[in-house]
Each structure stands twice: as C-alpha cells, then as structure tokens.
Amino acid sequence: MAYKVFGLTASDQTSLLRIAILGLISIVAVGSRLYSVIRFESVIHEFDPWFNYRTTRYLVDNGFDKFWNWFDETAWYPLGRVVGGTLYPGIMVTSATIYNALHLVNIPVDIRNVCVFLAPAFSALTALATYQLGKEVKNATAGLLAAAFIGVAPGYISRSVAGSYDNEGIAIFLLVFTFFLWLRSVRLGSALYGALTAIFYFYMVSAWGGYVFIINLIPLHVFALLVMGRYSNRLYVAYSTFYVLGTLASMQIPFVGFQPTFTSEHMAALGTFGLIQLVAFASYVRTLVPSDQFRMLIRLSILGLFVVGFGGLVLLTMTKVIAPWTGRFYSLWDTAYAKVHIPIIASVSEHQPTAWPNFFFDLNMLIWLLPAGIYFSFRELSDNHVFLILYSLFAAYFAGVMVRLILTLTPIVCVMAGVAMANVFEIYLDFSKTKAEAENMAVATAPAEKEKEKGKSQGGAGEPPVAVAAKTLYETAGFKRFYALFPKIVVVANFLYFLCMFQWHCSWITSSAYSSPSVVLASRGPDGSHHIIDDFREAYYWLQMNTKADAKVLSWWDYGYQLAGMADRTTLVDNNTWNNTHIATVGKILASDEDTAYELARRHDVDYVLVVFGGMLGYSGDDINKFLWMIRIAQGVYPDGFKEEDFYNAAGEYAIGDTASPTMRRSLMHKLCYYRFHEVMGPQGFDRVRKQKLPKDITLDNFEEAYTTENWMVRIYKVKDLDNYGRSHHAVSAFEGPRFKNDFVF
C-alpha cells in the first residue's frame, strides 16, 4: 500500500525525487568545472577560445550586422580574413544573447565572464539531455545514471571547464539533444519531433564542424533499418522531415553554404533520402502489384538504381562537381595520410591516434561498461537500440584514430553505461523476489522439518545441543532470506564501490589535468610552495604597451589567436590554418639562416618575431620541440629551400648546441631561442627540456632582443630597420668579413 507524503502520491514522490537528483547532478556538473577559476582566475584558456572571445566581444560591441560582414585586416597579414563567412557563429551568438538578456533584466555582467562560464552552464544542460536520451532508449534509471556519468566524465570535462570557451562547450549538448529528438521522432513517427530535430541540427551546424557526424550517423541509422527490413511510415516521416528542413536550415550558415549539395561528406544523407523515397514508393506499389511480379520488379529496380547512382556519384566526383573528401576525413581512415600529405594536420597533438591509457584516463570504468551496454541493446533490439549500437561502434573507431574524438565517444559511453547498470540494478535491487523465494523455501522445507520432529518424539537419537542450536539458526526464515540476499548485496556493494571510485577518479583528473589554463602555468617548489608562471600574458602585455598599434608580429600559428586577442596586434598566421602556403612561409623564415630570414621578414613587413622557449623551466611545449613540424610544412611548399634531414646531425639525431647540424645552428629559430641563454645558465648549463649542453657564442646581426619574460618562456625580437641593417651589414662585411663568413657557413 502506498502512503502519501506531504499529500503527494507515490508517482509524484518519484517525479520529485528525479527532479531533485537531476538538480544535484547539474550542480555537480557545474561545480566540477570551476577548479580553474578557483585556483587561478576568470580567464580564457588555450588558443582557439581567444579567437571566439575576441569575435564575441566584437559582436557585443558592434552588433550582428557588422559582425556578419566583418573583414579583419589584422589577421593573416597582408591577406586579411572575412570573419563572418569563415567561422561557426553559434557560440558567439549564444554568448551575446545571454549577455543581452542579463543586461535586459539589469544584471551587469561582463561579457568575459559570460564566455568563461558558458561551457560549465551548458554541461548542466548536457546532463539533462543525456537523461532524456537514456530515458528514451531504456528508462528513467538509465537516464539518471547516464546523466550522472556525463556530468563528471573527464572525456567531456576536458572541453568544458570554466574558461574553455570553445565550440565543443555547447556542441556536445546539441549533439546529445539532437540524437534524443531524432530517436523520439522515429519512435513516434512525429513530424513535429522531426522538425525539432532539424532545428537543433541547424543550431549544431552553426556551432561546430562536428555536425558532419550527425548528418552521417542519422542516415546510417535509417539505412541500417531499411536493410534490416524495418521500414515504417514512422521512419519515413521522421527522416524526410529532418533531412529537408535540416539541410535547408544548415545552408543559411555562410561557412557551410551549398556544401550539403556538392561535398562528399553530405552525399550519404542525400543518397539515403533518395533511397527512402524509393522504398516508400515500393511499399505503395506493393499494394497494387501481385507479389511475384513485385519481387522481380523491385530486384531489377534496386539493381538498376544502384548502378546508375554509384556511376553518377563517381562521374560527378571525377568531374569535380562533387567535392572529394577533405584531408581531415581521409586521415580518419588512414592514420598515416596526414603525416605524408598534410603535415599541418598531423602536427596538432589532438589529431594523433589515441593511446590505450587515454581511454581509461578519460572514461575510467565506463569503458568496460560500453560492451555490456551493447550486449543489452542487442537483447532488446528496437529501432532505438540499433542507433545506439551504430553510434557506439563508429564513435569508438573514430576515437581510436584521433584523440580529440574521445569527446564524441563520451556521450554514448555514458548512455551505454547507464543502460548496462540499469539492467544490472533491475535484477539485483529487486528484493521482493528474494523475499518470495525465501518464503517459498521455508514452505518447501516445512514438511521435512515436521517429519524430523516426529521421528525425534518416537525415540530417535537426539543431536548434540550445539548442533541443534546451529541447525535451528540456519533453518530460520530470516537466515534463509539473508542467504538469498547475500549475492545481490555483494554485487550491489561492488558496483557502489566502483561508482565511488569513478567519482574520485573524475574529480582528481579534472582538478589535476584539465583545470590549468595554458596561458597561465603553475608549478610547485621543492618545499611544496605554489608558483604561478605568467610569462605568456607578460609578453602579450609588453607587446600591447610598447609597440605601435599597427605592428606586425610573426610567430608560429599556435599563438596567433592569443596574440590577436591579448596583445591586439597584427599577425601573419593564426590557428585557423586555412592558408597552408602562408604558414609554410612562416616556417621557412624560422628555419632559414639569419640573412635569408631577414630578407623574407622585411618582405612581409614583419616588425617583431616571437618565439616560445622552455629550456629554462623545462616547458616541453616550446618551439624547438615543434620545429621539425615547421620544417616539414615549409618543405612541402618550398622543397628546394631545405630538407628535414639537414637538421639532423651526423648521428641522425635532432640536437641543439654544439652537437647540432650546421643547418640547425644557422637557423633563425635556434638563434632566437638560445641567444644569450648561456649567460644565464652558466658555462656548464644545459637545456632542461632537451637535456643537452647549450650552444655558445650565438650572435645576431639583423634582429635585436626586444623583451624576454621573467622565466625566459617567451622571447620577442625586433627586426632591425633597413638603414640599420644596411650599415651593420656593410660594416661587418668591410671590417670583419672573415668572421661573418665563418659564422654564416658554420
């Protein structure tokens, strides 16, 4: 009998409890992403987020029309960049909308704080969307477990901590919610939910290039159902509504434009749309044509249409009407493709294949619950479960070939883990069956007990008192029930232990690995004291305060967005990486000897050169460690200039200092990093990253040191004026010709 509490029925109590649990999950999801703000400050992290923040600030200050037509002359000098047509504006528009809404109700919040806390806020929405997805495919228990998992899973937190103002911060919520709407539209055959799926798909297109995953996975789901003979009017209505509205809406984003009609990435969706129309027509014809004739007709039609369709696709691709797959997508199928053909893609660390420890690092116990979830989905193979299985398999593959794509694997792993644990708990938390089993056992053993008692009363040999007492204890109904409950208690206790350890692991990983902004570094001294290393902001602030507003700064593309956002100076390249030739030119300048580099720098109006050097502190992410990628990219565009092999010494090693190759010692990068460094480290000093002795007697004739940060992490050099260069070059040639020549050759 159900009792009312505060006038609420059992159903109302359950609903209220779910709401409370989801509220707590949302609080934990947001709170676990605030370590970076608590430990450091409210600051934008990484590189890409600085571009997003800069464009959001421009949108807030100048309005949507100017933002949409913004031509940024300070980026990719001297080319510039049409910003509105070369970005996904979703995250900027979302932040600006929230900012304006808060100011409308007189909440004076700075746009920077909106950007910093946007990803944590959306993580709470992601947890709610995951709950709905788990509930749709299983039940509320699976939904709550999935929401709890994704709220703290490091695989998602890595891209959604406070300050990580990147597209993925809102895109994962849109990904999960779009899939939830899709599955509901398939289950109900609802054009309304199909339209909602298209709307959120449009939002996803505006936010992140990962929308391609949606527009390929949903058609794959439809195709799989058709192959399995599961065509229905519900499926037809859902997909037709989604594809037509979603495609038309996505084409309104300038960066996407007409790509859905002529790029290979979208052809699967178009082909599936045509196929489902044919299947629907065949289903209608089947009601009008006798079965034997229908089978022959459908076989010939399918064969003919397949030949025509495949031949047409090949022909259109060969004639360049349909654009071929991009290099990024080729690299998903061939992990060596990017390194050979597009080194700029392979140079990015997050594009590398995923090592096994990364899966356990980011997903922990969820990784072994994924196969269990797939197993339970096969047991109840509904249309929704087919989708879950396809999502799991393809996301697992893509996450294996590119470490960044663990982000898209995390939601389905959480859902599958929720499904698996919900099935386990359904069995092992059902104590009512255990009680009935114990009572049945007691009833079944009652006649035997009566016979034993009857034998004893007729003069049978009695048992020892201790044995009788123990036997009586074992045969009580309470013990029998405990005995029946014990296996379930053990299983539940083990899972609770795993859940506690999972929470501890997630908190530790989030705190130690994913809550340190790259622009501000932290270290601990031998005595345990906490030190903040703020060299990046120190260098950018110096540039902003001590250089002309129109100064051009050359650096490797990794730092372009930060330079533009924090120093507000013109850059030659940035993280957009759309022009490989321009990036290769920067690589050529840094890899060339000083005279050649100077001529190229003057030709591109460069005023300052910025390099990142970690030899003092042991910072391994510096430009010397990235230098080989700069050489490879430059070599791909300028093959006659130099070769990668020239930068290895006689032993075939990539070295610095006196053991380096002559080409390496002459390179501008080597000189700018190690200039005057031996004065600080002493004659016996060594590079703390490479663990090699320092070079000595490095001189600069055409570049002069302008600023070096406190820990020598960022070094800025001024390109000498042409007149000074001419006098210096002439004087050296006239009076110190042999020394200059030896330096150049050596």
TrEMBL record:
EC number: 2.4.99.18
UniProt similarity note: Belongs to the STT3 family.
Pathways per UniProt: Protein modification; protein glycosylation
GO biological process: post-translational protein modification; protein N-linked glycosylation via asparagine
InterPro entries according to UniProt: Oligo_trans_STT3, STT3-PglB_core, STT3_N
Pfam families reported for this sequence: STT3, STT3-PglB_core
Name of encoding gene: STT3
A GO CC annotation given for this chain: membrane
PANTHER family: DOLICHYL-DIPHOSPHOOLIGOSACCHARIDE--PROTEIN GLYCOSYLTRANSFERASE SUBUNIT (PTHR13872), DOLICHYL-DIPHOSPHOOLIGOSACCHARIDE--PROTEIN GLYCOSYLTRANSFERASE SUBUNIT STT3B (PTHR13872:SF1)
Domain Oligosaccharyl transferase STT3 N-terminal: 17-417
Catalysed reaction equations from the record: a di-trans,poly-cis-dolichyl diphosphooligosaccharide + L-asparaginyl-[protein] = N(4)-(oligosaccharide-(1->4)-N-acetyl-beta-D-glucosaminyl-(1->4)-N-acetyl-beta-D-glucosaminyl)-L-asparaginyl-[protein] + a di-trans,poly-cis-dolichyl diphosphate + H(+)
Protein name (Swiss-Prot/TrEMBL): dolichyl-diphosphooligosaccharide--protein glycotransferase
Keyword set, alphabetical order: Glycosyltransferase, Magnesium, Manganese, Membrane, Metal-binding, Transferase, Transmembrane, Transmembrane helix
Domain STT3/PglB/AglB core, first and last residues per copy: 552-608
Localisation: Endomembrane system
A Gene Ontology molecular function term of the record: dolichyl-diphosphooligosaccharide-protein glycotransferase activity
Annotated transmembrane regions: 16-38, 114-134, 140-157, 169-202, 208-228, 235-255, 267-285, 297-323, 359-378, 385-403, 409-429, 482-504
Keyword check for 4Fe-4S: no
Species in which this protein is naturally found: Coemansia erecta
Cofactor(s) listed in the protein's UniProt record: Mn(2+); Mg(2+)
Chief localisation class: membrane
Membrane topology summary: Multi-pass membrane protein
